[in-house]
Amino acid sequence: MPRYIAERVALLLLTLLGVSAVTFGLGVLAPGDPAEVVLEHRLNQPPPSEQVAALRHEMGLDRPLAVQYWRWLTHAVRGDLGSSWLRGIRVSDALRERIPRTLALAFTAGALAVVVGVPVGVLTAVRRNALVDQLCRVGTLVGSSVPSYFAAYVVILIFAVKLRTFPAFGFGSPDHLVLPAVTLALGPASLLARLTRSTVLDVLSEDFVRTARSKGAGPIRLGAHVVRNASVPILTVAGLALGHLLGGSLIIEYVFAYPGMGDLAITAIQARDYPLVQGFVLFSGTAYVLVNFAIDLSYASLDPRIRLGRRG
């Protein structure tokens, strides 16, 4: 077990280093000269070359890339991601304001996906080929195929325009979380339901299930064994879905005018405010890696082969 944790921590640090390199590379490879972009915003006209050269020196853009990366990385580790070129505020302050809202939306959507998807998957596996199985399979197929932006407009039309039960835009109360969370949870819930069904069906065909049935195990005890043995792939997909929700909700946030990280990122991309874009990418990548790290550690408590350091 300690060896497994040490391996996961080492891999975590290497992955985070790779995320930082990709994030920094986005700013370097982005079109346009950062100094020229900043001066154009300040002067509202093409800046003189002398001012561009002076600002490039001030921003450290005339230094070697390795030096620029090391300087950016050491500042990022301390929480200093620079300042927004257009807003003039610190990137860390802008992220600190938006991150709690995105976390609330992502965890609400993730909880909905698990609460709906896993029970539906277990139900359809137990009632295989029954009417409820057929209906749920069609529903999950549609749910996993519909684009999120299209589902968002359908949800707004039904629940905000026609029924007027929930607000469609903004942030300020728990009601504002309902529609974007439901829209975000639609795809992961459908995926979890389909995966849970196939995984539970595989476990139900195992020898230990037939042995437990022959010994008269009740449905609760038998269900506990089945769910535990099917939990590793389900947990994997649930963790990947949560990581995706933390960084991939920008379209939904933009559609619902939800003031989270996604809305901030789209605005920054449109304005070519690369420090804010880098901050969003760094947050999304780090969140995704940390969620997967937590999932990897949870494997050891679910699968004894991992806890004992076995492979294969």
Tell me what you see in this structure.
Helix 12 runs antiparallel to helix 13. It is flat and about 85 Å long. The longest helix is centred in the middle third of the chain and has 36 residues, at 91-126. The chain has helices at 2-29, 34-43, 49-59, 65-77, 91-126, 131-145, 148-162, 175-204, 207-214, 219-247, 250-255, 261-270, 274-302, 304-307. It has 312 residues and is mostly helical. The model has no long low-confidence stretch (mean pLDDT 80). The protein has a domain at 99-153 and 179-307: Orthogonal Bundle (MetI-like fold), CATH 1.10.3720.10.
Label this structure with key terms:
14 helices, mainly alpha, 312 residues, 78% helix, MetI-like fold
What's the SSE pattern? Answer: HHHHHHHHHHHHHH
Spans with pLDDT under 50 lasting ≥5 residues?
none
The proportion of strand residues reads under 5%
Task: Give the number of helices.
Answer: 14
Specify the biggest β-sheet: none
Quaternary structure classification: single chain
Principal-axis shape? flat
Q: What is the CATH first-level class name of the domain at 99-153 and 179-307?
A: Mainly Alpha
Helix content: over 70%
Total strand count, please? 0
- Per the CATH scheme, the topology name of the domain at 99-153 and 179-307 is MetI-like fold
Head-to-tail CA distance between termini: 16 Å
At CATH level 2, the architecture of the domain at 99-153 and 179-307 is Orthogonal Bundle
CATH superfamily of the domain at 99-153 and 179-307: MetI-like
What structural category characterises the helix and strand content? mainly alpha
Radius of gyration: 24 Å
Mean pLDDT: 80
